[in-house]
Amino acid sequence: MSSTCPALADVLARYAAVSSAPRLHAIEARLRAPVSVAVVGRPGVGRGAVARALTGAGVGVVADAADVRVVVIAEALKPEDRRALRGDRPSVVVVNKADLSGRVVGGPLAAARRVADDIAVDVGRPAVPMVAHLADVVLDDQLIDALRALAAAPADLASVDAFVGSEHVVPMPVRQRLLERLDRFGLAHAVLAVVEGEDAVSVAAGLRKVSQVDDVVAKLADVGAEVGYRRVRAALAELQRTATESRDDDLAAFLASDEVVIAVMAAAVAVVEASGVGVDPGDDPDAHLRRALRWRRYADGPLGALHRRCAADISRGSLRLLGEV
Q1: What letter does residue 34 receive in the DSSP assignment?
Q2: What is the reported pLDDT for 81?
């Protein structure tokens, strides 16, 4: 995942180029650092598969001390999962093994999505279904040939034993390889893709889509907006302490400048938009005034501390933009 708060980092970099204030470059580097993710979960839920899938998708997965925590579960939340979600660290719940959600209307992914939605409401954290082992499937020529043979002469997929034990032109060891790589859910999708004429690359791309890994990455990007905003507030607090302790009037003036206030507003906008609330992007005096008034009222509503602070920063930044017109 990319840097979360480039606007303030860019503003700080320009100031650091003409300032002798200490620690500016170190603070800028922290603002630009990629978001790190720790993947946790009980044994047997597929934590390793989720970590590999996210790593393959470009997410910076680390062992500990991460910005964001991914809590992997299977089927339902257990007490251990709830304990892992405690604290104020941004978190995402991944409901892995979504392909095993049973035979229901709409299919297992739809059922797992409903479970994830219920969990999100229950714990107040984003939750996404996933079939992690399908995110980075590699199909060699032998497996593609076997899929083509299965497309031409369907095998019994009612159970693992039926698929492996029945007579078929595809040798048993190859069928076992397919099950190890895809499981029955992925195998059914792969056979359908081959029936439609797709090649190995397209089949793998389709399985990646079915895995929902891109949805998980998108949700992590949304959560990354909160990480960025928290970094911005921490950077400002550190810089304000430095200005006070060193009696650096230039640094104090910089921190109160329009550039900084508007950069903080940008980080706040990213947070509220990631939560599904739109922010008027208008760039004329009327839009700035409307936005300032709306978000001032919004800040007085029934919000958590994070969104209340963001609303106040959006209002403040809008007033600065109005003053520049």
Answers
A1: B
A2: 95
